[in-house]
Amino acid sequence: MKLLILFFLSLNVFASTLHLATSANPSRLNPLLATDSSSSEIAGFLFNGLVKFDKDSTTIVGDLAKEFYYENDTTLIFKLHQNVLWHDGEKLTAKDVLFTYKTLISPSVVSPYSAAFRFVKDVEIVDAYTIRVTYKKAYFKALETWMMGILPEHILKDEKNFMNSKFNTKPIGTGAYKLHRLEHSKDIILVAFDDYFEGRAKIDKISFHVIADPMTRFLMLKSSALDVGSIEPMQYERQLSDDFFKKFNIYEEISHSYTYLGFNLRREKFKNPKVRLALSLAIDRQEIVDILFFKHAKVCTGPFLPETIAFNKDVKAPKQNIKRAKQLLSEAGYDEKHPFSFEIVTSNSSATRPYTAQILQHQLKKAGVIVTLRVMEWQAFLNMIVFPHKFDSVLLGWGLSSTPDPYLFWHSDNDKTGGFNLVGYKNEKVDRMIEESQSIIDRKRLGKLWREMFKVIVKDNPYLFLYIPNSITTINRDIKNVEKSNSGIWHNYIEWEK
Question: Class for domain 47-153, per CATH?
Fold first, then answer.
């Protein structure tokens, strides 16, 4: 009888489960090292930063910090909540913040996020729950930098090999959920942290199902095996029945991301600007949007997103001009006997990018360009192609905040291992503009400089900027308290009920 009771109790340990899908195994569930979308998404449930954006992504508010303020233009004070516990029951203190900073800037740690801390002069512990951060000079993203997840000093202080630490797959955070189980290519299970400082999440468990194939994810969503999922415009327009819309609510908005074709500018074939311009003129961006997205996307015209101060509305996407593209290729030494050829590599984690690659291949063929395609599994794509820079071109996307830091993507300093300047872009003028922009606090002046930078980068064609998709999210109607905002739906997930 005792065993029977225990069995039934075990069945009811998790009264509610939120079923989600991720397209790839997370590489490292460590906020300092989570550079792929799967890792960063899951780590977001496990860790907190000192601050975060409010639900509309317009104002920075406290997270682990209950209070924060500027002493002057170069000095920030953070006062921590005193009731925050790590998942193992230890208390969060100022030591953890200092440890996270020192770890991130350590030469033994390779992380693109370290660049955001390059202007920090010193981090000091004032008392057990107060931190003073001093900057070398005023920095426009000083506060946003501290959205980085904080690590536990008591667990990692003696770690000798941080990059390959067991912690990266068995993390201990302060987040609303803690890791229960991680099975590669199967499931990642998170459970609600009973002692979360903002109150226990109302859904007991989150189950991430690792499903690489987009069609399988879609079929699982249709069958209600998933509670939340993204759907493609083609699916939305042609492949869903009325019954689906009775079971799911739809939330659609322009995404905070864009897709691009990036050229490896370290390779001789892409160093000639005439070649890059020819490739840009050979494609029809609007045709890609029309074929793949119907009315659920817009053409991307440059490196910063609309509705931000960095967006330059005067820069338009070039119109397809096959004649001019052929002329430029001829001037660069290519013709029918010696055609320009290159490979596009992308991942199968996105339902649309392999099709985008096929459309690009077809469009470029009209200008005499021979394109070969390779579609890979996400982690193999990142680890074997993207980060080692072993590609002609990559079809990828960036998700950006409302105040992006162009230093990470466009400064020549970040053409390095682990850096986000994946294509090896180098322009001294852009470097100078980025360096000037870093200490500009006046948003009017900053916006003007960024818009000029936008124009210069587009003219160089390091990327072919392609499209900004709409984000179409479906949520099971059984999930209560979902609240749409400018930042999406996830801002109040601890209040969701099922």
Answer: alpha beta
